[in-house]
Amino acid sequence: MRRLAYIITLLFLAVGCGQDDNRQSESVKLSVDKTSLQFAAAGGEQTFTVTSSELVRVSSDENWIKVSKGIKSKDHKTLVTVSVEKNPAADVRHTSISVVAGEERISVDVKQEADASSSSGNNKYEGELASNASEWLGMGWNLGNHFDAYNNGVAGETAWGNPKATQEAFNKIKAAGFRTVRIPVTWLGHIGPAPDYKIDEKWLGRIAEVVGYAEAAGLNAIVNIHHDGADSKNWLDIKTAAKDADVHKQILAQVSAMWGQIADKFKDKGDFLIFEAFNEIHDGGWGWGENRNDGGKQYRCLNEWNQAFVDAVRASGGRNADRILGIPAYCTNVDLAISTFVFPKDTAKDRLMMAVHCYDPYDYTLPATKSEWGHTADASKKVSGDNEADLKKVFEKLNRNFISKGIPVYMGEFGCVNRATAREQAFQQYYFKYYAKLAKTYGVPSVLWDNGAKGAGNERHAFLDHGTGEYCSPEAEAAIKALIGSYNDDLTLDEVYNNAPKF
Questions:
Q1: What per-residue confidence (pLDDT) applies to 94?
Q2: Please, which pLDDT band fits residue 16 given cuts at 50, 70 and 90?
Q3: Pairing mode of beta strands 325-328, 93-101
Q4: Which pTM was predicted?
Q5: Deepest in the core among 21, 47, 370, 413, taking most CB within 10 A?
Q6: Backbone angles phi, psi at 135, to 5 degrees
Q7: Residue 497 and residue 375: Cα distance in Å, rounded?
Q8: What CATH number is associated with residue 36?
């Protein structure tokens, strides 16, 4: 009987061991308990757990991060230790850890804060974006009618007469006192067919080269999709999209594909680079077209395009996981922003800014049908009303509806064309001084429109040569110094007002 009992015991143990072995051989899908790690500038050590029945491999390409793994437990768990060195730079740095098990792969994002005491770096923000945008973006300059130019449906850098951009020019733009360069880009003629919408590598590479000029010069850079949405004439046709669900769906797919490629190209670029979804999207009526009576269909289309843009950029990973993104209102119009704008949902906190434009009052700043501006101007030569108060209302609206509620805003374009006489130039300089002081007072970073068109009058916005960075004229130099000086000095708005031109 004792022998029989012994045999039964052995059989029981054998069955039990077999069941254990089966459990060990079960296939367990790869997973991690953390998909992101955040470190202070001082560095440190953190862990995460990988679960997989396969052999686990972990690695990182950066030399400032060390990754090691422990022994796999019986329940298929492996503890991974991540050690990060102190960050001596003024740049936030990002990388990812590759976790591989068999054919499965997961990335764990790693972010380390910048050294706040470091003076190396130029394009930093700290804390809440809404309260710091005015400081780190500051006063900016547009590389206008440049990469956004196109002829016969094909975008070209020199298509509208500007010279090729150079590092020298960007260095001098920085020296002039600008902190940001907006680089409008039209992609027409450089986009492949559906469904991939492949962007021509040469065109994208040239954009990347010029973004590199900004980085080397210590400038922030803003890159967008520009005239692809001009007047509903090109593929970003909001008029048709509002009427045809299939067109809207196709555009959403193209937005996602295009921004996915652009984002991937720049995924390793630092915080100096901002993506701006689109330019002045409208149906050809400049905000006074069918959008006014179509029941909000066009506004809903744009809001969905903006969401597709955010989703595509975030999905590309790398530094794009929390890159600052500019979201345009319809036609970038301030009043339409207030009434129609819906901020996209975002996985990153406080990294979206609303983009609007300001050329108020139009008759003075663009066609120059009025030659003077402000309370000291000749009444017959200026736009009627209280010019200063009317311009101030633009900023008050932005503050009341957005900035005061924690929604940051930047003026992607503003401007005032050059003038022919000394008297007219004095009022142009005063306009720039007053605008700059408003922008600084209300915390609205602003980017001056410069299209390279020399001379005076209608649409003549040349201030700094796009190829050399030299001032286009002594008058242009005086205008820029008035603008930058007013943004940076300690004068109050009232003091600027009291120093208006007197003739």
A1: 77
A2: very low
A3: unpaired
A4: 0.77
A5: 413
A6: -80, -50
A7: 8
A8: 2.60.40.10
Residue 135 half-sphere exposure, CB side, CA atoms within 13 Å?
A: 10
Alpha helices in 63-188 (DSSP H): 129-136, 167-175
Q: Is the domain of 183 the same as that of 217?
A: yes
CA atoms within 13 A on the CB side of 31: 8
Q: In what order do the strands lie in the sheet with 93-101?
A: 36-39, 104-112, 93-101, 56-59
In a shared domain, residues 283 and 427? yes
What span, in angstroms and rounded, lies between the C-alpha atoms of 236 and 455?
A: 33
Q: Give which of 386, 389, 475, 375 is closest to 424, Cα–Cα.
A: 475
What are phi and psi for residue 356, nearest 5 degrees? -135, 170
| Torsional sign, CA 302, 304, 306, 308 | negative
Which tens digits make up the pLDDT trace of 333-392?
999 999 999 999 999 988 999 999 999 999 999 999 999 999 999 999 999 999 999 999
**Rounded Cα distance, 399 and 407, in Å:** 9
Pair (60, 135) in one structural domain: no
477 phi-psi bin (left φ>0, alpha ψ -120 to 50, beta other): alpha
Kindly state whether residues 134 and 94 are assigned to the same domain: no
Token pair of 10, please? 């052995």
310 by DSSP, 3-state: which? helix
For residue 458, which amino acid is it? N
Distances from the Cα of 486 to the Cα of 172, 386, 396, angstroms: 19, 21, 19
Rg of the chain on CA atoms, in Å: 28
Return d(Cα 408, Cα 416) in angstroms, integer.
Answer: 24
Residue 213: which CATH number? 3.20.20.80
Q: Which residues are catalytic?
A: 280, 413
Digit-coded pLDDT (tens) for 255-296: 999 999 999 999 999 989 999 999 999 999 999 999 999 999
Tell me how many domains the chain contains: 2
Q: In the chain, count of helices (H) and strands (E)? A: 13, 18
Task: Please tell me what DSSP assigns to residue 66.
Answer: E
- Is the backbone of residue 328 left (phi > 0), alpha (psi -120 to 50) or beta? beta
Whose CA is closest to 94, among 145, 38, 55, 52?
A: 38
- Can you give the residue range of the structural domain that contains 153? 129-498
Instruction: Say whether 250 sits in a helix, a strand or coil.
Output: helix
Terminal C-alpha separation, the chain: 124
For the segment 292-314, what is each residue's pLDDT rounded down to a tens digit? 999 999 999 999 999 999 999 99
**Which residues are paired to 18 by β-bridges?**
none
* DSSP 8-state symbol, 268: T
Helix (H, G, I), strand (E, B) or coil at 94: strand
Classify residue 194 as exposed, middle or buried by CB count within 10 Å of its CB (0-12, 13-18, 19+).
Answer: exposed
Q: Are 183 and 138 in contact (CB under 8 A)?
A: no
Place of tokens 């790690």: 37
In a domain, 424, yes or no: yes
